[in-house]
Amino acid sequence: MTNRKLIAGNWKMNGSVGANDLLVRAVLAGLAPAPACTVAVCVPAPYLAQVQMLRANSPLELGAQDVSPHEKGAFTGEVSASMLREFAVRYVIVGHSERRQYHGETDALVADKARAALAAGITPIVCVGETLAERDAGRTEEVVKRQLAAVIHVNGHCISEIVVAYEPVWAIGTGKTASPEQAQHVHAVLRAQLRAATAHPQRVSILYGGSMNAANAASLLAQPDIDGGLVGGAALKEEDFLQIVAAASRCD
Ligand code: PEP
User: Fold this and answer.
1) Of 118, 166, 200, 227, which has the highest C-beta tally within 10 A?
2) What pLDDT, on the 0 to 100 scale, is given for residue 2?
3) What is the pTM of this model?
């Protein structure tokens, strides 16, 4: 049995009240009432309430881009999982390479963020991926396994509830995409690691992210261990995003 595909848009730090309104309405207009894949948009925190209202009674799911590992208290600037939950957030991205790179997030912190999300009933989309230097040094498997191992270590008891996103850092926002074979190889490695950690490794969706677009989505999504996509730039253009959703829907 294969997983229902998941296409999650990562808007990153883009949008405005006006632009969000146009984008979400256009995406909703192009979505089937009951799409054959799950579709989500992960939006900047200030826009959660707006997008929650726009998507009400639609199949579009809401996601956030980060979460505090703490429950509450003196953590100025942070947003807790229970706060996200109040806005009907179903997914939260944790450990995106931009947060690891620009905010010094460690594997241990990412694991704690995943735990906080799970405790609030939110599915963490745990990002893993190697830099170009690590790939060139033949360290891809070692790096992604280390990143996932930290999350398994802390969340082993409910690891089948997470989503993993394999996002090679060299492919994010660069227009360079991993080939379907390169991506499938790493996804199979991650699946094997999950198999050792849970009786339900197939339940974990493993998304590919990194310059996924309307032209390359179908061949990536056709791979046996690629269960969907985490989509950055193309999620900001309704036509491109809807074409990726259509490609995912044809896989089911
Ligand atoms: C991302 O930011 O998660 C991403 C995959 O970006 P892009 O699709 O623009 O490479």
Assistant:
1) 166
2) 65
3) 0.97
